[in-house]
Amino acid sequence: MAPPQNQIIAGTSRGDTTIDVQKLLDRPWYRYKHLRNLYAWLSVVLLVQATNGLDGSIMNGMQTLTYWQSYFHHPTGAQLGIFNGTQGLGAVAAQFFLWWLVDKIGRKFTIIAGAVIIIVGVFLQSFARGIAMFAVARTIIGMGLSFEYTAAPMLVSELSHPTHRAQLSTLLNTLYYFGATLAAWITLGTLTIKSDWSWRAVSLIQMFPSLVSISLTWWVPESPRWLISKGRNEEAYKILVDHHCGGDENDRLASFEFHEIQQTLAFEKENGDGGWLNLFRTRGNRYRTYIVFSCSVASQASGQTIIGYYLVLILTGVGITNPQTQSIINGCLTMWNMGWAFWGASVIDKYGRRPMMLTSLSGMLIVGIVPWTICSALYTEHGAKGAGIAIIPFIFIFNAFYASTWNGILTGYTVECMSFDIRSKLICTQNFLVQATITGFNYLNPVALKNIGWKYYVVIDIIIVLEILMVYFTYPETSKITLEEVSIIFDGKKAVKNQLLEKQEIDVGEEHAQGKTEKNEKDLDLGISHREVIEK
């Protein structure tokens, strides 16, 4: 009989009843047929974030199109803020019921529902007859996007093999730049269209990822954690066996995961009532809520919204006014961001969450926004054209540090900090805060850039310094353990420990006393049948 594909080794820095997920597999994922199949289906889920990237880049790109500017009478200031801000209003409104919906109908069907809503919104946006219709369409698109990026991070983190959870969860937000890159270069291509179709055609491109979602998401496996919470144990166990163990029922990882999920869900149900007060009921949940609140605001308050939505204003402010030049810079920037974001997702487990967050923020500050601020001041106050042009490379440097870490943190780090019983509520809270912050900055940014210019960047400098202090003193490391075992970091001694490992710990301890084995180097025999696990 072939040996199991997953080797469960007990003992990490978090305790003897945890396992090091990086030691489960001895080969890369692409050498396992079942993981290739699983990640092919998960790529459908990952693609939903490309829709968000398309949306963000399209709003930047449209501002470079002469026909869009003429059609909407060259919006500036607060009026331009309305064009960008209404998307956030739809996203914020959806959070008031999405926390319930995603637990009611599941992760898959929430994504599909979001795709349908986006298609309706994109159609209205593409054929808008005025600012009111365009704003309504942006609101609908925002609501649909909210459906997708509420459910997608949950499905990816809950369905991925434990070894690859961090990379895939981080990769989800990385695909924002894939969509942004497509939109940027398509916008450049439509500059040659001498009609309103130059911007209407770009808008219609937003439908593509949603059409893929509607067509293929039906066949993506559902979250085993959601299935177990609904009492559908047989389905959940089969998904774990098929997609984490290659259909091998003798592989003990499926039993281990199933038992750990069941045990954790039972504990959470016993100690909570399913209400919103659970976010603050225990010390561990208050800590989780703080991480989500602070990270959601920090990710959008560090200057990225200025570049993401108002790059054209920045470039115009330093004398770069040619639409084609602006579009080329936008396209190159999104490709640059995508490359750094993919790199960050690939090394997030190697270097750890905290070191990457701190390095990212420090780089954004020291070699990004500070010299950018200085150059902007020199150009504005003294008319130094060289200083104005120098802002461009500092924008690229700033974005490299941001994209390598912070773009993926909201679907990687924060999601794994959440326990299952409050995950849907915290993700909706996170999305609400992110969209509220983006909406606020979308109204503030054009007004601030117009009225106070480079001094606005000084505010961003101060915000990043505060974020560095926040991460250094309060953010924990969560790498290399299972999704359920992360609770040990937040709940301490009150955290649920896997009873199979607790029993095994005793057995191994006895054998060690007899000189038979080394405790942390034993491939665990869980000593429990698969049928017994499901029925237990």
Automatic annotation (TrEMBL):
Origin: domain of life: Eukaryota
UniProt-listed InterPro entries: MFS_dom, MFS_sugar_transport-like, MFS_Sugar_Transporters, MFS_trans_sf
Transmembrane annotation, as ranges: 38-58, 78-102, 109-128, 134-155, 175-193, 199-220, 290-315, 327-348, 360-380, 386-405, 456-475
Gene Ontology terms for molecular function: carbohydrate:proton symporter activity
Cellular component terms (Gene Ontology): membrane
Subcellular location(s) of the protein: Membrane
Domain Major facilitator superfamily (MFS) profile: 41-479
Membrane topology term: Multi-pass membrane protein
Segments for region (Disordered): 508-536
Main location class: membrane
Keywords assigned by UniProt, alphabetized: Membrane, Transmembrane, Transmembrane helix, Transport
Matches recorded under Pfam families: Sugar_tr (PF00083)
Record PANTHER family: MAJOR FACILITATOR SUPERFAMILY (MFS) PROFILE DOMAIN-CONTAINING PROTEIN, PLASTIDIC GLUCOSE TRANSPORTER 4
Family according to the record: Belongs to the major facilitator superfamily. Sugar transporter (TC 2.A.1.1) family.
Protein name: Hexose transporter
